[in-house]
From TrEMBL:
CDD domains: SDR_c
GO molecular function, one term: oxidoreductase activity, acting on the CH-OH group of donors, NAD or NADP as acceptor
InterPro entries membership: NAD(P)-bd_dom_sf (IPR036291), SDR_fam (IPR002347)
Family: Belongs to the short-chain dehydrogenases/reductases (SDR) family.
Protein name: SDR family oxidoreductase
Amino acid sequence: METGLKGRRVLVTGGATGIGEAAAIAFAREGAHVAVLDINEDGLGDLAARVRDEGGSIEVVKADLSTDAGVQAGISVALERFGGTCNVLVNNVGSGAVRSFDDVTDEDWLKTINLNFMSYVRATRALLPVLRAGGGAIINVASDLARQPEPVPIDYSASKAAVLALTKGLARAEAPKIRVNAVAPGPIWTPFWTKPGGFAETMGQHHKMPPQEAVEHEMKLRQLPMVRLGEPQEVANVIVFLASDLASYVTSAVWGVDGGSVRSLT
């Protein structure tokens, strides 16, 4: 089916690795012009080389998305390279660690909210005037933990629940010019899990098990119907759909890509 994304300008935050990287590649394969913001300079370079080797169009911008100044600077550069226009914003940047409520300090809470939620607020605020002028779509990457929180990681779950509230409110405020939707991935095997200090390592510390064994144990506790962790491309496919003309009547929706982890009806 024709997505209608060819020639459109798509900005992805936190796109050097994982779900953001997969989304950037998928958009480029649809013929979109892609700009990716991330603090990971090496990852940005690798991504740019891969997309360009495939004949795609991509701009990469190093930006610290945990600060207001970093978000503003990164988006300013991306917009300049896009000629002042943008059609799609994918808010994807985020991080987290597995730790119990008692172990999460005020500093931890603020750090999590600042990156996982406020970066979305700031990026959206910066691009809304452009999106309002030409119409477009915003896709926010949330989490299954926003809808079905587990005991850990509680700060991460709360930050992603805030993303869903933001999505719903913006969808009503900006319709019909801008469609705003969210994807809520379940456990996806990305550097978010595998990097030093990531979910796998900190989950191992929490469960007092080796990282891989701890992840398998956690999936059993969650009774995940698909049993396995998902792949980044499986989430990217849904992100591209929500940004495309194929989803022209879809707004204020939360699309689970979670292997069946969420059991509720909503």
